[in-house]
Amino acid sequence: MALDEELTAVRREIHRRPELAGEERETAGLVAEQLRAAGLEVTTGVGGHGVVAVLDGSAEGPTIAYRADMDAVDATRNVLPFPRTGRVYDEGFASTVPGVAHLCGHDLHTAIGIGVARTLAASSERVRGRLVFVFQPAEEPLQGARAMLDTGLVQRLAPREFYALHTSPFPTGTIAVSPGHGLPGLDQLRILLPDGQDAAALAAGVEALGTVHFPQNVTEYHAGFHALLDPAAAAARQESASVAAWPEPGPAVGVLLRVWPQEHLPDVRAQVERLAAAAGGHVESQNAPFPALVNSPELSTAAGDYLSTAMGPDSVRWARASWPYNCEDFALFTHEAPGALLYLGVANAEAGMDGAPHSPEFAADERAIGHGVRAMTGLLTHRLTTGRRVRHGE
Fold this sequence. Notes:
alpha/beta, Aminopeptidase, Alpha-Beta Plaits, 8-stranded mixed β-sheet, 4-stranded antiparallel β-sheet, 12 helices
């Protein structure tokens, strides 16, 4: 069986048996089995169900890391409120776990990571240096990267650069890079109000602080994502604040702030505090703010240039702004070494596959698996042989 077909079968097995954050036992076992069979040195149980695999090449060289996330989502809660069409895209390999599904593409991420590792292990003479493959649990709640890093294993391996892919609504056969941009951080707040105050009215006032608002359907989602490629539209999004607020018993108001760039977060939070004070309430932090993911300008540009040459200029998209609605705990790995998250196109308009992560009918063109493997295999090999060391901030 060809590798693309084997990886499609792996993806479908993971898709069929999705596991929530912190519960990725079977997925991690499958990953470890595949990597050990390929001859890699594998460590399991890293920060929960994390898996770290090491491939040493045939010559001295740098260490570069590649991350894939493994967890699925709660399909009853963690999805966008888009209208449904009733179409079924995973007939024959649909989730067998009630209320849990791979609606963010992590099943594809995992299959691609396995494919990259297997491809390079089969021709390790091409590898000059060391590759570290990080299969991460609990990305959705932004907990898995910290748990893995707390073990110290990744730091001891000391990667010089970090890479990852994420599914996106760009067309299958394309990859987007976003030099200097990425995804916002997250600040989770709770406004406590005195009895008798109107929490719903305050929630509406807080949400009005946002400069961007969630798309209401897949069409708007696609339009917003493709606007990142338009220089004029992207220029208007250099600064953004996505604000979600909702009334809670107490009375109270829950608030999520996603602000880009990160330096503007204190200003937005101060506005929330002023609204809370005017209503007689006060703001409490639910957690420490989670940092934004900022892609290394140099590594992202180098990736785009390499992929344009290796796979054709039409296969590469250049995102000139940050997508304001999601967070990514890949951000924590880029605090250990400069890194780049690339957007893998998985949409197929003719087949009705939207490629929009967290939409209720998320569907991905499985041809993107092979494309992702070939792209990242080539890029990682290229960086091991030709890339210079990049300092943080470059």
